[in-house]
Amino acid sequence: MDGMKVLDDLLQRAQERLEESLAQMSVAEANTMPAPLIKSVTWLMWHTARELDFQISELNHSQPLWLSAGWTEKFALALPDDTEDWHHTPEEAAKVVVADKQLLRDYLSASIAFVRDYLATVDEKSLAEVIDKNWTPPVTRQVRIISAIDDAVMHSGQGVYTRRLMIGK
Predict the structure, then answer these.
(1) Which of 45, 80, 99, 122 is 20 to 30 A from 6 in CA distance terms?
(2) What contacts 117, CB < 8 A, 6 or more positions away?
(3) 55-83 pLDDT, tens per residue?
(4) What pLDDT score was predicted for residue 2?
(5) 72 CB burial (10 A radius; 0-12, 13-18, 19+)
(6) Which of 148, 134, 127, 154 is nearest to 17 (CA)?
């Protein structure tokens, strides 16, 4: 079995869960944080897309889509472009709102297509390459790819949970 195909399938399933959760919610429901420490579906989708975008752009030495494709202007969030969304306080997370759910779908789709295109170029040998020596043990390309996709899978489950808290389905 090809490991890249497995990762691709996991990524697509995460996208499906997030998009299904969003489809069952109004924009107001998607933008709402049901409790101070539970992020909104809007934040979860945005963060998932952004993390995939930033993690993979670092691996392939390109500018993130967030900047190169104008997503920062499209979202126009009251947050700096270099916001560390994985550290967002509830107040910062609450600033991630949209007027149109399609914007979230589009950025998530673009980010996932970006990752899928990258996965198609990764060869077995490059997976063992150390890309970050700031950790013990040092982080390899394989670990970084799995970490980014695992994050997407985790947040897709959180999206389902959050939707159920908001609308009970």
Answers:
(1) 45
(2) none
(3) 999 999 999 999 999 999 999 999 998 88
(4) 81
(5) middle
(6) 154
Greatest distance between any 2 Cα atoms in the chain: 47
Task: For residue 63, give both structure tokens.
Answer: 């500018």
Q: CA 159, CA 156: separation in Å to the nearest integer? A: 5
Are 45 and 159 a contacting pair, CB within 8 Å?
yes
Please give the model's pTM, rounded to 2 decimal places: 0.94
Rounded CA-CA distance 93/155 in Å is 14
Distance CA 140, CA 96 (A): 31
86 Cβ contact list (under 8 Å, min separation 6): 47, 51
Three-state SS for 69?
A: coil
> Token pair for residue 2?
């090809």
Residue where the block lists tokens 């969003």: 22
DSSP per position, 78-89: SS-TT--GGG--
